[in-house]
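USER: Note each token:
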Amino acid sequence: EEYLEAGCHAVQAGVGDITDSVKITGDVDASTPGDYTVTYQATTADGGYADATRTVHVVDDLDAADDLPVLMYHYVYTAMAPPDDLNGNYLLDTDFEQQLQYLASNDFYYPSYQEVRAFVDGTHTLPAKSIVLTFDDAEQGFLDYGIPLLNEYEVPATSFLICEDEDAAYKAEAYASEYVRFQSHSFGMHKAGSS
């Protein structure tokens, strides 16, 4: 199978999205097993830059996934500050940490969205232990408690922002993390009467 470049997302504090400035270097030969390094360099308007690298493992044989679980979360809270309306949308931070420990200690694979699309289309396989984590709404508990745990365990997730919220852009910038990708959940879908 061909190598699928996942790319990256770059945000500069006070400026916003600078992904267009990213230069990608490094080659991956998907026909030859081994480890390959891909480097991403984002450049600011004033000439500053940041680098990140990704190691790509090309393997000879793969225990392939038959399906792809997606864990869809909403809100994270702490035992010291439980919400008044505690319901099934809420996850205790210590429970979330136990889940991340399990994923990390059992070598789960977190595919890029390019890989997910190719898997769904039937053009690429994924490792058997592949999984996707998402969080709807970019609620404050997720930002304050969930993101630090994702950072600690180095587990990537996508946070789907409600773009109508006036602080949506602020959240994406202020809580930027190499393990969290912010995307659009909807604009005003949570309002009564919206379609």
